[in-house]
Amino acid sequence: MTDGINISTAELTMNEPDDRNRLDVTVQGLIHTGMDRPDGPLKVSGRATYAHEDQPAGMMTGVLVRAPVAGGQITGLNAEAVRKLDGVRDVFHGKTFLRNPAQGTANEAPVQPDGKISYIGQPVALVVADTFEQARHAAHMIELQITPEDAVTDLDVAEIETPKDKQSSQGDLDAALSDAAYTVDETYRTSGHSSSAMEPHAAIAQWDGGKLTLRGSYQMLKYNVNELADALGVDAENVHILAPYVGGGFGSKLGISHEAVAAAHAARELGAPVAVVLSRQQVLEATMRRSETVQHIKLAADADGRMTGIGHDSTVSQLLDESFAEPVSQATPFLYRGENREIGMHIKRINRMCAGSVRAPGEAVGITALEIAMDELADVSGIDPVELRKRNIPEVDPSDGREFSSHKLAEALDDGAKTFGWADREAGKTDGEWLIGYGMSSATRVNMLGESHARVTLNEDGSLLVETDMTDIGTGTYAILTQIAGEMLGVPADRVTVRLGDSSLPKAAGSGGSWGAASSGGSVFVACEALRKKIAETMGVEERDLTLQDGVATTNNRRADLPEFTKNGPFTVEGTINKGDTQTDRRQATFGAFFAEVGVNSVTGETRVRRMHGSFAAGRILNAKTARSQCLGGMTFGIGMALTEELMFDKRDGHLVNNDLAEYHVPVNLDVPQLTVNFVQERDPWANPMQAKGIGELGICGAGASIINAIYDACGVRVRDLPATMDKILPGLPDM
Amino acid sequence: MRTTLTVNGKDHSLDADPRTSLLDALRNHLNLTGTKKGCDHGQCGACTVMINGRRINSCLSLACMHDGDEITTIEGLGDEHNLSDMQQNFVKHDGFQCGYCTPGQICSATAMLEEFKAGWPSNVSGSLTASPELTDAEISERMSGNICRCAAYPNIVDAIRETAEEKS
Ligand code: FES
Ligand code: FES
């Protein structure tokens, strides 16, 4: 600590709602605007440094070796022969290697199976050489000796677990179904998905004595440090992770992964920096997948379409001994009314890469299936799909009677319908050989807050420095933290510097579960509010009577430039936000609505999305531009889920058939029309002092259903097995 | 193997393994890490650079094949203080999120507008011979070799359209 630096702390636990709406009163005019990302110029000029950049001198390169069978034990390998190859420094295998990446917030190392193989593609060895070309060649020359073991590679014969704590029941669903005027009772299937962030998982490890510095691509540094330290058997204080720019995550970089542990292990043994980058095939084969799901949904409604019952029973898959299970029905209990309900969850154990979080675990697939079922209910009851949903918005969370913190589904439905022109849609429209159809769906996602810390410094020149180990994985963290700090302290954006992605900085919740903006933003808000109080104190006024704008503090009778307050050195406050009672006192969620126009080709059965709109309510929108981009991203994931994305496994040996971007089809530019997005005005006082909620995942939660429902409208084919590829549509097409 | 690579107007003498791709030469030997590796198999476009003005996937080409070629990478289009029009419009329209596909998108878009100017048709052009109109579909089709998993596609189209309009 330097002399003259004034450091203090401020903490807020969200036990009470905050409806002061401070950010509506501040006058800097930064919050909510579509300010350009401050990291933009570096990113568009290729100067932002991702994980495999800033390569240190003397760096060696490691290439991972994959397991070729789904079950077995490695008993040896031809390390001696491979070590003799040109440029090869060493070959590693055994204890340190991970079976799979850590799950989000695991905070400890994942299974380290010491040569036991659980799925094809599991990284089991590392070859390190002077250059990438040498290491890649040498990795191909590795011959593994394996004692084969039984593996389950066919879901049809996999064992099923039914965990007690994941089943729930209220009322009598069977009775509701038999008394109902209208029912739906169908099974829906969604495919396995890969996050496939564009930056492959990468790490550069460098030891200095007993201290490790790792440049990596991760979403949640405070957990990643502990996971990496645990995997390496060192103290967490000796592990420093840098991830200033992360080339996409979508859940796949929540936990520490193979490349980090392998690079750090090899670098320690070799006494030189080592880089390990997963190939695209390894990303697909060895990082997290979203489980495929089978969802049996039952809906019961009276003659007015008012729902009396919901059943949502899902089956997902996972590796043995992993506790994560895709939480398919986590939003089902509160989205619609219906006093009789049954929620079930079953897990099949299978030798495939680990199942984990992929953008919006749970709702992404669960709400999508539920919203297809709702369309079927609209169809059988003859009620307009928008109207049907509005009739079924519950007053309170039907599963436990809790009030909602704020609920804007009706507003989102109305806004979306109006923007899209839902009422004016034309039945039976065609365009050449294309059959045109329209569909809609609701969106919802649970909202959370996680403990977060951030340090905000008012410098002697009146500029601001914001520091936290939070990451920006494309989400816009650099932008929104600039805006929150600048808005609270009346400092123009170009005078605010935000430092992120360095684990030595105050610990944030990390990027995941859509809680990043609320949590890291909340801690910055708390620190800034404390700084405002200090300024107010010095000026002898109450904090609320202080106006801060363009670097000047004004009260009724005084004006002072910010540097006047830092004459004796900078002011620093470390702000902390914790979740509290507001998380449990109210049901907190975001809501929205999707509207889609598709064309189904009457000759080929191909579906093209022609128009798609989303209206979303996620509390205060901190940056209109980056929030919109998050929604575009989510909706596009929805297009992928509906039409093209599908992890395909060979039942015989369990290998992933489509392990690259040529075969695993993520949407490309022409697959995505000029999507439109609206935000519905909302302030959620129960969420955090900014009244903002998560926006990173809402855009995928149900999006695919609007497309599937539009396909039905276009051609009468009800696809219940996603993606809706041509083979599933063609047989049902009407004769032309 | 010795190769002289002319990158962004500057000659570099490269002594690398003949198996070195142009992409790896740029990133690992010349420290030009603006060009990204997303797949190493010509499937994503993250590695797009321009060779004598034409866009290519640098992962699909060996460095030693480019002795004497004029190579332009993202670093050559503009730095953070002096952005090209295309780069500025990507910032303005938020034509990226994580930014990892972005150098490839921008190199690709820059070269694509030249192809368009030269009258090249695309898969969505109505005619092979008539000069196409730069519709959103034309832009999208011509940019479909550059995957953006963050899915900034609508914003990418806006950024390119505005750049083209400014030029004409
Ligand atoms: S890295 Fe070259 S196309 Fe993907
Ligand atoms: S900006 Fe992230 S992949 Fe395009």
From TrEMBL, chain A:
Q: Which SMART domains does UniProt cross-reference here? A: Ald_Xan_dh_C
Q: Where is the Aldehyde oxidase/xanthine dehydrogenase a/b hammerhead domain?
A: 45-150
Coiled-coil annotation reads none
Checking Pfam families in the record gives:
Ald_Xan_dh_C, MoCoBD_1, MoCoBD_2
Domain of life where this protein originates:
Bacteria
What is this protein identified as?
Answer: Xanthine dehydrogenase, molybdenum binding subunit apoprotein
Q: Which organism is it from?
A: Sulfitobacter litoralis
Automatic annotation (TrEMBL), chain B:
Q: What SUPFAM superfamilies is this protein classified in?
A: 2Fe-2S ferredoxin-like (SSF54292), CO dehydrogenase ISP C-domain like (SSF47741)
Molecular function terms, GO-annotated: 2 iron, 2 sulfur cluster binding; metal ion binding; oxidoreductase activity, acting on the aldehyde or oxo group of donors
Keyword Membrane listed? The answer is no
Q: Which UniProt keywords apply?
A: 2Fe-2S, Iron, Iron-sulfur, Metal-binding, Oxidoreductase
Q: Name one Pfam family in it.
A: Fer2_2
Q: Gene3D superfamilies attached here?
A: 3.10.20.30, [2Fe-2S]-binding domain
Chain ranges of the 2Fe-2S ferredoxin-type domain: 1-77
**What protein name does the entry list?**
2Fe-2S ferredoxin-type domain-containing protein
Organism encoding this protein:
marine sediment metagenome
**Lineage start:** unclassified sequences, metagenomes, ecological metagenomes
